[in-house]
């Protein structure tokens, strides 16, 4: 889902950069206020961990493999959508500049798609669904799935606006593919959340409770 | 991707005239080349600018004394998603042309259009030039140097400190990731092994993800605590010493920048 350079014209790419920058500034403010100004390094180290999590080959029912995005997981565990934005911005910067995975001019769009959508849909999806059905793991599953699916839909819409991929086909292909990959993102998010809740319940939704 | 981390860093630690060039110059030249190829509207003029910029890239790659195979290997890793989007173009109409001529008809009523093939090739040229410059940048510049360069260019300390921390720990987690993978292999567990029940595999991978998350969080806590012990506070930043550009670096930067800007403008303006 990492859009490469040249697939979005410069003018539009700049608009996504502006939107992304607004969220990056808000995420920095969140990190300062809620984590404590000086605890930002902790999130940076966590971002490196998410980078490793994304490297893990994950089985998809038909025998191929995929990768996790992890924005929903970070947002749910740290209890803020901005955690997803913060972590994914760092990961996407490194992926774009070091590995060439995802473009530079379109990085704003990629941050919006994966970080902002991933974080916000992941966190609010989880909080909302958990409030209705009461089961945290089912909520994490649906939120994880939705975070990926909606990211992919937005990505298809952006490419359609750019004129580099037709809307119906984009929605069909990206939508179907990510609706399936999303099941894995959701599944892993739920299992990982269960594991974290069992092993380190103190870090869940209590980012201020970090032992200093 | 994580395996390539060492591959890329191994190349970045070599030495050549390009490696020794100040990272600020390399960052800005890369950005200029990418912006130039992206800014030029989708038209056949892209071929010309693409050729000019690719020659510039090839010259710099040769000067970096890195083997061409290193470039090709990295290129192959990056291509898939872009190539999928590009290959698909030939079957669909896009908004950049008014008339479409069918050049081939395939079963199921799928048609290939001449204009779409042209558009796909334009996208391919833009895509190749952009990623070639990124490959050049990261193969000849250490990550820490890039962050320092970004700091010298005015990136706020919040970003340089965080990015500096992240880049440092990526290697720690790459090691950890390899240990996790070895542990899985020694237990004969393969997440992609279809003879194992799907739910079981998913649960195991989920636990692995959870444990990597906790381990990175705990590493963060330890790092943070040890930073506090060494006087870390709200106003801490990455220490970046002042460094002036040498005359040669200045000359190279302005010459290359002028070359990129002029080529783009001239190619854009020609009838």
Quick description:
The complex is a heterodimer of chains A (212) and B (271). With 212 residues, chain A is an all-alpha fold.
Description:
The complex is a heterodimer of chains A (212) and B (271). The termini of chain A are far apart. Chain A is an all-alpha fold. In chain A, a hairpin with a 5-residue loop joins β1 and β2. Chain A contains seven helices and two strands. A two-stranded antiparallel sheet of chain A has the order 1-2. Chain A has helices spanning 10-35, 40-55, 71-78, 81-99, 107-133, 136-162, 167-199; strands at 58-59, 65-66. Chain A has one domain (10-200): Orthogonal Bundle (Arp2/3 complex 21 kDa subunit ARPC3). By secondary structure, chain B is mainly alpha-helical. Chain B folds into two domains: 2-77 and 130-151 and 243-269, no CATH class; 156-229, no CATH class. Helix content of chain B is 72%, strand content 3%. Chain B is built from ten helices and two strands. Chain B has helices at residues 2-12, 17-20, 23-39, 45-63, 68-89, 114-140, 143-152, 157-186, 198-229, 247-269; strands at residues 102-106, 110-113. A two-stranded antiparallel sheet of chain B has the order 1-2. In chain B, a hairpin with a 3-residue loop joins β1 (102-106) and β2 (110-113). Chain B is flat, with a radius of gyration of 23 Å. The two termini of chain B are 44 Å apart. The relative contact order of chain B is 0.14. The model of chain B has no long low-confidence stretch (mean pLDDT 91). Classes of the chains: A mainly alpha (212), B mainly alpha (271). Chains A and B meet through α1, α2, β1, α4 and α7 of A and α1, α3, α5, α6 and α8 of B.
So what's the CATH class of chain A? Mainly Alpha
Radius of gyration of chain A: 17 Å
Q: In terms of per-residue confidence, which ranges of chain B show pLDDT below 50 for 5 or more consecutive residues?
A: none
Q: Please report the total strand number of chain B as a whole number.
A: 2
Q: How much helical structure, as a percent, in the residues of chain A?
A: over 70%
* Percent helix of chain B: over 70%
């Amino acid at each position: 889902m990492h859009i490469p350079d040249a697939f979005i014209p410069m003018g539009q790419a700049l608009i996504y950069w502006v939107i992304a920058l607004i969220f990056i500034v808000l995420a920095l403010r969140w990190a300062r206020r809620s984590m404590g100004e000086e605890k930002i390094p902790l999130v940076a180290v966590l971002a490196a961990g998410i980078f490793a999590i994304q490297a893990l080959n994950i089985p998809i029912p038909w025998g191929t493999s995929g990768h996790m995005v992890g924005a929903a997981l970070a947002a749910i565990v740290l209890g803020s959508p901005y955690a997803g934005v913060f972590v994914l911005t760092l990961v996407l910067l490194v992926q774009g500049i070091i590995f060439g995975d995802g473009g530079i001019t379109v990085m704003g769009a990629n941050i919006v798609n994966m970080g902002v959508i991933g974080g916000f849909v992941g966190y609010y999806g989880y909080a909302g669904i958990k409030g209705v059905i009461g089961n945290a793991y089912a909520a994490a599953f649906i939120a994880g799935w939705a975070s990926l699916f909606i990211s992919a839909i937005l990505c298809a819409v952006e490419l359609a606006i750019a004129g580099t991929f037709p809307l119906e086909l984009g929605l069909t292909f990206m939508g179907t593919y990510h609706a399936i990959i999303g099941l894995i993102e959701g599944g892993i998010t739920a299992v990982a959340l269960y594991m974290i809740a069992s092993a380190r319940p103190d870090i869940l939704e209590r980012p201020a409770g970090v032992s200093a | 991707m994580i395996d390539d981390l060492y591959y890329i860093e191994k190349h970045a630690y070599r030495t050549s005239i390009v490696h020794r060039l100040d990272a600020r110059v390399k960052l800005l030249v890369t950005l200029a080349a990418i912006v130039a190829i992206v800014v030029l509207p989708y038209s056949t003029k892209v071929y010309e600018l693409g050729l000019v910029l690719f020659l510039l890239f090839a010259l710099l790659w040769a000067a970096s004394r890195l083997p061409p195979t290193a470039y090709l290997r990295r290129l192959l890793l990056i291509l898939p998603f872009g190539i999928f989007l590009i290959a698909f173009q030939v079957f669909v109409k896009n908004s950049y042309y008014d008339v479409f001529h069918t050049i081939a008809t395939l079963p199921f009523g799928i048609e290939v259009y001449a204009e779409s093939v042209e558009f796909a090739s334009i996208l391919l040229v833009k895509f190749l030039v952009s990623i070639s410059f990124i490959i050049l940048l990261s193969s000849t510049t250490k990550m820490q140097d890039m962050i320092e360069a970004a700091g010298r260019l005015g990136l706020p300390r919040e970003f340089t400190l965080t990015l500096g921390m992240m880049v440092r720990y990526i290697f720690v987690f790459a090691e950890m990731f390899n240990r996790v993978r070895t542990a899985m292999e020694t237990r004969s567990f393969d997440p992609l092994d279809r003879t194992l029940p799907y739910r079981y595999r998913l649960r195991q991978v989920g636990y692995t993800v959870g444990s990597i998350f906790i381990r990175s969080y705990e590493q963060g806590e330890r790092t943070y605590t040890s930073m506090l012990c060494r006087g870390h506070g709200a106003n801490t930043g990455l220490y970046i010493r002042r460094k002036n550009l040498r005359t040669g670096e200045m000359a190279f930067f302005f010459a290359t920048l002028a070359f990129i800007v002029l080529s783009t403008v001239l190619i854009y303006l020609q009838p």
